Amino acid sequence: MSTHVDILEMARQQLAVAAEYLELDSGLHSVLANPQKRLIVNFPVVMDSGAVQVFEGYRVQHNASRGPTKGGIRYHPDVDVNETSALAMWMTWKCAVVNIPYGGAKGAVKVDTKQLSKRELEKLTRRFVTEINSMLGERRDIPAPDIGTNAQVMAWIMDTFSMQAGHTVPGVVTGKPIELGGSEGRVEATGRGVVVALEEAARTRGLDLGNARVVVQGFGNVGATAAKIAEEAGAKVVGVSDALGGIYNPNGLPIREIFQRYAGREGGIGEYPDAQKVSNQELLELDCDVLIPAAISAQITADNADRIKAGIIVEGANGPTTMEADQILSDKGTLIVPDILANAGGVIVSYFEWVQDLQNFFWEESEVNIKLTKIMRASYQAVDSAMRAHKTDMRTAALVIGVKRVADATTRRGIFP
Ligand code: NAD
């Protein structure tokens, strides 16, 4: 989504660092550096005006060695197939780091959903699913929500796939509404997992979360939930933003009120009056203890890394920090809890949703949250131990664990024929 950072190249460089630690064979390294399948589709939609518009979309499956592939579908005007491939690769490592039995995938359509009516959005979704239908399946590839998509879009995906299968297939997609086989706790899962990661990071750094000042970039599903749960955990959320800009109040912002009254308004959360307005770039550099980037990729770069004051960064978004910025921040002693660990809560509860759908047996929210928290804490601690053992940063440690699990599975399966 970023125009100046090649996200696929960034994902490949991260893989190369892990490959060196693991002394991966060069053939195996090339297998992991490339997605297994990429489909590019161009498909027409009859708009409300009667005019036909053609949209470009992608589905990328990176690696299926550990199970069916899993990954969100993003609707955004700046997506491209390389970025989608990078996101699919990160999904592979993410599922492996938290040890759930999936490979990675991602999908996207180049579209500005703000320009579409609800009917147009439904038609676009149904036609896109029809175009990529052969790649999907509850045992094959299972989409989920991402930027620009939500539970309603997942419901249309499930319905469209089911119409073509001739029977209802709830397990083909996760993040569905509860009444269609969605899971309790899924909507909040990523933000909740981000805060579990933050609690663990605060503990290892001796930071009292009750006195911590937190800044969150992005006030969508991940950012708003993380801000709300961090506030419930006692932290003072001093800055938040959406695509239109940010707000800052050193005394703390009432997150629940901002969520209920200002999120989703045309003027954005910037309409909240009792705060100073800041740009998204200024927001990242605010005086705070914890920064949670939860919007888009490549926000923390060589251009601003040395001005970032937070001692802990918990990556809610995928790929918010470039490799140059990683280096600058780690030299400063900033702890970065990497995306493939920090935001894994979403795919963990997606996995729970899929298990519930396959069994037709549904769990209470408390059970979902307890199981999510347990996996997040254990995964955090495993990555933390690997970081200490390898004397490296947390991203490299998480990649070493994730890439090793995928490499081992790929090697054990062997190469067909
Ligand atoms: P969302 O669409 O619900 O929210 C995105 C938020 O970011 C909105 O507040 C939007 O206004 C803001 N935003 C958009 N462009 C921006 C910009 N240029 N600068 C600042 N803010 C901007 O999306 P989401 O589901 O919350 O996803 C956010 C990030 O988290 C993405 O990187 C996504 O890949 C990642 N993620 C999401 C999930 C999930 O379960 N939803 C899971 C893992 C990772």
Summarize the structure.
This protein has 417 residues and is α/β, with parallel strands linked by helices. It has helices spanning 7-22, 26-33, 81-97, 118-132, 151-165, 186-205, 221-232, 255-261, 280-284, 323-332, 339-342, 345-359, 365-390, 394-413; strands at residues 37-46, 52-63, 69-76, 103-110, 141-145, 213-217, 236-242, 245-248, 276-278, 290-293, 312-314, 335-337.
Main attributes?
417 residues; alpha/beta; Rossmann fold; seven-stranded mixed beta sheet; five-stranded mixed beta sheet; 14 helices; 12 strands; 46% helix; 17% strand; globular; binds nicotinamide-adenine-dinucleotide
Could you walk me through the main structural features you see in this protein, from its secondary elements to its overall organization?
By secondary structure, the chain is an alpha/beta fold. Helices cover 46% and strands 17% of the residues. It has helices spanning 7-22, 26-33, 81-97, 118-132, 151-165, 186-205, 221-232, 255-261, 280-284, 323-332, 339-342, 345-359, 365-390, 394-413; strands at residues 37-46, 52-63, 69-76, 103-110, 141-145, 213-217, 236-242, 245-248, 276-278, 290-293, 312-314, 335-337. The strands form two sheets. It has a seven-stranded mixed beta sheet with strand order 9-8-7-6-10-11-12, sandwiched between helices. A five-stranded mixed beta sheet has the order 1-2-4-3-5. A hairpin with a 2-residue loop joins β7 and β8. Bound molecules: nicotinamide-adenine-dinucleotide. The site of nicotinamide-adenine-dinucleotide (NAD) has 24 residues, from α7 and β7. Nicotinamide-adenine-dinucleotide (NAD) is lined by residues 145-148, 190, 217-223, 241-243, 280, 294-296, 316-318, 343, 346.
